[in-house]
Design goal:
By secondary structure, this protein is an all-alpha fold. It is about 80% helix and about 0% strand. It has eight helices and no strands. Helix 2 (about 40-75) packs antiparallel against helix 3, helix 3 packs antiparallel against helix 4 and helix 6 packs across helix 8 (about 195-215). The protein is globular and about 55 Å long.
């Protein structure tokens, strides 16, 4: 995970680790919806809140890419077709999230089995669109980022990616990122955090995230597969 100081290129593996969060959560969400008992509105609200936070985070992640990465690649990489492909995939993902958003309020209000089925199917469609995009981005775009963006430009992408996370959700966001990270990746990301953040993670953050994860995933016993 340690970038070469002599290469002075963006450390794009950071994005791969971030993508794991979206891969994992997009797999868990339809399962969580289907696992809510008919009529259990309190649980539907709990899962729906997590779903809304996921959609907000993914939308912001893609907005940052739209406003930073794509214009720079369009200018420097001379691969208009690839940039257009990424933008079209973002649009397809946006449409899939709109379908989820349309179905979410009714399910949260009623926890009705039919409403749950419709919402879960919309989430399945969303995941299909998302995985195609993440695969293409990792395989085709990140090598171009490493070649054509500066380290400072890449660092700005990361900074903007975190700017909308509420302060009271920072430990949960960090835990979500570190959950499937290797020990080396965990050390890398923790080293980027300020000292106070590292201390808070060790003191309360790990337990806070573990408790949140257990409460959210208890009905499906955890564990996801791509």
């Amino acid at each position: 995970m340690t970038p070469s100081s002599s290469s002075a290129r963006p450390h794009t593996h950071e994005m791969v680790v971030v993508h794991r969060v979206f891969r994992r959560e997009s797999a868990l969400l339809p399962r969580l919806v289907r696992a809510v008992p008919d009529g259990r509105t309190a649980r539907a609200v709990e899962v729906g809140t997590h779903l809304s936070e996921y959609m907000t985070g993914l939308h912001h992640h893609h907005t940052v890419e739209d406003e930073t990465i794509w214009p720079l690649l369009r200018e420097r990489a001379a691969d208009e077709a690839l940039v257009a492909r990424m933008e079209e995939q973002h649009a397809r993902i946006d449409r899939s999230l709109a379908a989820v958003t349309d179905r979410l309020p009714e399910w949260q209000r009623t926890a009705d089995r039919a409403a749950a089925t419709e919402l879960a199917l919309a989430l399945d469609e969303h995941r299909s669109a998302l995985l195609e995009h993440l695969d293409d981005e990792e395989r085709l775009v990140l090598p171009l980022v490493a070649e054509h963006l500066t380290v400072a430009e890449w660092d700005e992408v990361g900074r903007r990616g975190m700017e909308t996370v509420p302060r009271d959700k920072l430990m949960l966001a960090l835990g979500s990122l570190l959950e499937e990270a290797t020990p080396q990746e965990q050390a890398y990301f923790l080293a980027k955090a300020p000292l106070i953040g590292r201390l808070l993670w060790k003191a309360i953050g790990r337990r806070q995230y573990a408790a949140y994860r257990r409460a959210l995933r208890a009905p499906i016993d955890g564990g996801t597969a791509r």
